[in-house]
Amino acid sequence: MSARGATAAVMAKEWAQIWRDPSTIGLVLVLPLLLMFLFGSAVSLDTTATRTGIVDRDRSAASRDLVAAFARNRYFAIQEAPAVEPLARAMLADEVRGIVVIPEGFGRGLANGRPRDIQMLTDGAQPNTAAFIAGHARGLLATWSAARLGERGEARPPVLQINARYRYNPGLRSRYTLVPGAIAIVMAMIGTMLTALIVAREYERGTMEGLLASPIPVPLLVAAKLFPYFVLGLAATAVCVGVAIVAYDLPFRGTFPALLLISAAFLSAVLGQGLLISAGTRNQFVSTQFALLSGFLPSLLLSGFLFEIDSMPQPIQYLTYIVPARYLIPPLQSVFLTGDIWAIFWPNAAIMFGFGAFFFWRVTKAIGRTIA
């Protein structure tokens, strides 16, 4: 049999093995759906109906109107109290996230054009939530005071006014950036898991010697075993993208050829990583554990998915350069939110293909040593 025919036979064998193994189909179709819904629904940096205490020490018409404005706002779930102390105890018990204190003389000062400052206490143990509460409270106060001046026929605009406009994500919904990042995390884990077993399984079953005795060159053998899983990886990516668009209403402003390019580049890296783990360990259990550790955790923590890379310590920033998911998340966010920006796509795709080529070369060397 020629090398070409033997390569086709190995590829056909791999496809048949995939179809006979329900766990592989579940890994490609069921696990992406489960993980996408978990990441898309459970991971969120937005706050709505945040439990907030409020103390009205003034009890004037203006202060009561402000309390009502807080109660109507969807970002706050108001719990009113006569003093700060019970609310402080509630914050300590994690029952409220912030406390708004309206001082005595607030209404009188507002009428005289010299309003007293409102105090905002937030829970610093939850810094993201604290920042959101403070920001929403400032916005509510600005809107409320402008409406009060308008009712009185007064127009006293500030000396300097900033009108912020947010492009690509006008509502500042964190889901728009988290869900594309979740796709990268899901594909990093599934990609490494798909190929972490295939060579180790051959060694454990004793069939690797037969494959190595065939007339197939080692690079063609590796490619033949890798190609079916590359197709399955693209199918899993399509499932994740479909969930992002249909279930989470993400815009898709790029093109599918661009999405195919960056997905193929990333899959070449993570599939090659899993295959190298499989060839190096030659044990399915060890391969699975190492694939989870090397594929999932670095992608989750060091890719920029949850934590901005620029805010990390400098040594950790250097470490992120060896994480393939770092180079997928910016192109993936661009193809969803902004469109095709090839100045971002090409360099990141080239680096990911470089990772894939390196892993492919290392796998051929590892299997080649077995032949020798």
Please provide a brief summary of the model.
The protein folds into 2 domains: 3-43 and 174-371, no CATH class; 50-151, abc type-2 transporter like domain (abc type-2 transporter like fold, 3-Layer(aba) Sandwich). It is built from 15 helices and 4 strands.
Written overview of the protein:
- This protein has 2 domains: 3-43 and 174-371, no CATH class; 50-151, 3-Layer(aba) Sandwich (abc type-2 transporter like fold).
- The chain is built from 15 helices and 4 strands.
- The chain has a 4-stranded mixed beta sheet with strand order 2-1-3-4, with helices on both faces.
- Helix 3 links the parallel strand 1 and strand 2.
- By secondary structure, the chain is mostly helical.
List keywords for this structure.
372 residues, mainly alpha, abc type-2 transporter like fold, 2 domains, four-stranded mixed beta sheet, 15 helices, 4 strands, elongated
Number of strands: 4
Write the H/E string, N to C: HHEHEHEHEHHHHHHHHHH
Terminal residue distance? 22 Å
Strand content: 5-15%
Radius of gyration: 28 Å
The largest sheet is:
4 strands, mixed
Spatial strand order of the main sheet: 2-1-3-4
Backbone shape: elongated
Q: Helix segment count?
A: 15
* Average residue-wise pLDDT: 82
The residue ranges in which pLDDT falls below 50 over 5 or more consecutive positions are 157-162
What structural class should be given to the helix and strand makeup?
mainly alpha
Helix content: 55-70%
Q: How many individual domains?
A: 2
